[in-house]
Write the structure tokens for this entry.
Amino acid sequence: MGTAPQYQQAFASKRVIVGITGGIAVYKTAALVSTLAQSGARVTVLMTEPATRFVTPLTFQALSGNPVYTSSWQHTEANDPQHIALARSAHAAIVAPCTMDCMARLAAGRADDVVSLVLAAIDRATTPVLLAPSMNAVMWNQPSTQRNRAQLIDDAYTIVGPGDGWQACREVGPGRMSEPEELLHALAAALHPGATC
């Protein structure tokens, strides 16, 4: 894993939204959030309710140094509704892990949890949104998942991974979430097209 100083040029003063959905790969997201924060990024973490069953919001609050949003009904900004204010202020967003269910919600244009709601308010023509799929190999290979993947690419989302490897279901195959290092490189490339990190 790269060190925070390695990424300071890429992430210093950048506002990055990290969406977390309910997959076991959430443990990798802790390293992602920590490195972003240490690199000078202002990280806002959004967690679906299933995600909070794997790792508590307090963990990500400590790592990011900022409040964690777990509900579409939290309103801490004074003027705009939470999802509009967060979306407008972001330089980039990433969902890691992005479950099969989250991919389906985004492909269908749903906005019924805090992650999908905030992403729905981001203009992807100006703000990159990356998705890091994470699921069982059979789930990844489902025709519906592959249709959703194609639709999300058409809708200007950037898909990072998944990789092949050992999975929590005790099988080896595609669907394993990309490692934090790969996600950091992808975020840096999205924020600074044409630059090398």
Remarks:
- The chain has nine helices and eight strands.
- The two ends are 14 Å apart (CA to CA).
- The chain has a mean pLDDT of 87.
